[in-house]
Amino acid sequence: MAESKALPASKLCRKYDLKTLGFTETSDLEDLHEPLGQDRAIQAIRFGIGVRHQGFNLFAFGPPGSGKTEIIHHYLEPEASSLPVPEDWCYVNNFTARDHPKILRLPAGRGRELARQMESLTEEVRVVISAAYESEDYRTRFDVITEQFKLQQEEAFEDLQKKAAAKNISLVRTPMGLALAPSRDGKVVDPEVFSKLPSKEQERIKEEISELEGELQAAVRMLPELERQQRQEIKKLNREVTSFAVDHLIDETREKWRDCEAVVVFLDEVQGYVIDHSDVFRLSRDEAVETIPAKMAADFVKQQDRIIGNCQVNVLVSHDSNGGAPVVYEDNPTVENLLGRIEHRSEFGSLVTDFRLVKPGALHRANGGYLILDARRLLLQPYAWETLKRELRSCEIRIESLTQMMSLGSIVSLQPETIPLDVKVILIGDPFLYYMLSQNDPDFHNLFKVPVDFDDRLKVNDDAIGLYARYIATEARKNKLLPLEREAVELVMERMTRLTGDSERLSNHTRSLSDLLSEADHWASSRGVSRIEGKDVNQAIQAHIYRSDRMRERTQEQFQRGTMMLDTSGIKVGQINGLSVLQLGDFSFGRPSRITARVHLGRGRVIDIEREVELGGPLHSKGVLILSNFIAARYSADKPLSLNASLVFEQSYGGVDGDSASSAELYALLSALSDIPIKQSLAVTGSVNQFGEVQAIGGVNEKIEGFFDLCNFRGLTGDQGVMIPESNVKNLMLKDEILEAAKKGKFHIYPVMSIDEGIEILTDASAGQPDKSGNYPPDTINGRVKARLEAFADSARKHNRQGRDVTKTETGDV
């Protein structure tokens, strides 16, 4: 009965035959120019990059390694090249508010031109100003002003000296300044001599000196005013000379930029600034070192650098005039890398900055084009996600550091003028991040309205097979690998189908395919051949498995050595072989487990021992509850279920989750109730619903191979096999060893749709069908189960009556 239900070997794995494609190796195939199997994603990309309205940014999500970034670049770059080139952005000094640098918006490519012109202009200005100050005309005019004010000073004291001389008083210089003293014959009288003069004489002289001191003080007070006037005249002379020297240079530059009003305004400000600071421009570094004391020279050089630098241009972003819109990928999306930063330098123990230390961020570089970001990396950076949302909402770039945002720093910094933002942002991440943000961030759908959903599977049909062969050929050429023979292509496609866990699908996971081709190329190259053959692909697959399957081998070894108890022959009541999958990194393998069931009279509980000791997960507990309700509904619909049963995964020392063992647990329970043994040569996987239907599970290939490896080690008898849900047949992509064993009748795969069908295979006994009254034939499994449960119910009623009688007797005696 069981033999007839086993699947033929042809159903256990999809094999590809590419002879009809008419190629012998991949060099015969054309490149595939469009991404394979991504029609939905491509349509979304084209829409997202085409619509220019605010908020229509893209979030591309799919499995890691599915080629999202490459595909997005594939469609972005042609679109970007057809768009107009964005403007250049430059920061210049704000001459009225130094800590608020101004922004200049220039045509594409002209920012660098302006920066070069300003560097050249400041150097020429320094040269011409220096030459003007060294000219004979300037020296003469300077000397005239100096001499003129010198004469005014002399005239101011000349009258005072004449009055003093008429009264025998001299004007003398002392360390404390000018003073008046008595004199005779033009010589100052010694204080000792003065003290011997008659008192009346002394009083007279003192009165005369006192009168003259008022005039002296007036003359002295006039000196600062004369000096101020002299400085003003010199400054006026300097401005006139400087203006005459530099006006024509700045006029020439202004003429070149007359179509840019902002630049003309900036040049006007530069012109006034240069004239105001002509004394800094007149000396070169070498001259400053030679003419200024060493302690002051360094300060002067720094001041000169700052003054000259204030006239230059900080080109934040510049584009080639024929380069199209930018496409920028920011690998490390921190706040500073997105917004730009304001750098500082140390001067005399303090941190200082200016507009030249404003550095651009990714938003500046991508402005007018496209910015691609990794969503996971963005979310891991403090404040980066909120910062990006703020800039997209406001449509402007505001440069701020984290310390400014959090109000933690006290360093004086700049507040650069904001820049209008026009950028299309493309986030790349996995589906979990997309749905998490959709659920939890109210701003998300307002800013990222275009989901780009990448699929990693391709439906197998004739067209898809031909395209996939070209896809393999394209990847091989792109990575500069050896061409693949047709057999190698067939094996690659078989492997990529296996990765999907579905024989009707092909994986278009780019990284997995590229890695497999690269490893096969390595083995072919090591043999010195010119093409990748089928054995190279097989060796790459086996080598990859071998590198990852140490734990699988360790697990198999425990069964082989008898450490883990599992029968692969014989029959047992209430015992069955279940199958599970362990996932370690990107490698998964099947692990068989012994499941046992024990039953006895009780109050209708099916005890999941795994759950009781908190080793069972919620899905496993759900499966046990479903099977317990199935038992109650089928066999005890009209009377209480007087059963206690226990289920356990024997020698399970870790957590158990998932419902894929629920059918196996139900079979074990039915065996224990009917007292009919189960074949230990078979293993079972599949979940069950409340109607007794067997449902699909995951990891079917790994589960089958895990049990097959143990049976193969102990020796295939022809009775061994695995029972799987009928709905999992389409998922079968088993290894060649199992196919060979199936062809020889040594190992069998049994698909089942219901519990009744499965229990018959496991026991070689009839499940039994109910009659109109709901009763089963007594010699069937269902009949024996129902009879056992009715016996339990009768025993329970008998015990209950006895308990009531004892209670009545005791009450009467009392």
Structure write-up:
This protein is an alpha/beta fold. The protein is about 50% helix and about 15% strand. The chain has 29 helices and 30 strands. It has a seven-stranded mixed sheet, with helices on both faces. A five-stranded parallel sheet has the order 8-13-16-1-17. A three-stranded antiparallel sheet has the order 3-2-7, with helices on one face. Strand 29 (about 720-725), helix 27 and strand 30 (about 750) form a beta-alpha-beta unit. Helix 1 packs parallel to helix 2, helix 19 runs parallel beside helix 21 and helix 25 crosses helix 29. It is elongated and about 160 Å long. The model has no long low-confidence stretch (mean pLDDT about 85).
Strand content: 15-25%
Structural class: alpha/beta
- Major sheet characteristics: 7 strands, mixed
Question: Helical stretch count?
Answer: 29
Instruction: Give, in spatial order, the strands making up the sheet with the most strands.
Output: 23-24-22-21-26-29-30
Helix coverage percent? 40-55%
Count of DSSP E strands?
30
What labels would you give this structure?
about 800 residues; alpha/beta; 7-stranded mixed sheet; elongated
What order do the helices and strands come in, and which of them pair?
Layout: H1 39-50, E1 58-61, H2 68-81, E2 88-92, E3 102-106, H3 110-133, H4 136-166, E4 169-174, E5 177-184, E6 187-188, H5 191-195, H6 199-256, H7 261-276, H8 278-281, H9 285-291, H10 294-309, E7 313-317, E8 327-330, H11 335-339, E9 341-342, E10 345-347, E11 350-352, E12 358-359, H12 362-366, E13 370-374, H13 375-380, H14 384-394, E14 396-397, H15 402-406, E15 419-420, E16 424-429, H16 431-440, H17 444-447, E17 450-453, E18 457-459, H18 462-478, H19 486-500, E19 505-507, H20 510-527, H21 534-548, H22 550-560, E20 571-572, E21 575-584, E22 587-601, E23 605-608, H23 609-612, H24 618-635, E24 643-649, H25 662-674, E25 678-679, E26 682-684, E27 687-688, E28 694-695, H26 700-714, E29 721-725, H27 736-743, E30 748-752, H28 755-763, H29 781-813
Parallel strand pairs: 1-16, 1-17, 8-13, 13-16, 21-26, 23-24, 26-29, 29-30
Antiparallel strand pairs: 2-3, 2-7, 4-5, 5-6, 9-12, 10-11, 14-15, 18-19, 20-25, 21-22, 22-24, 27-28
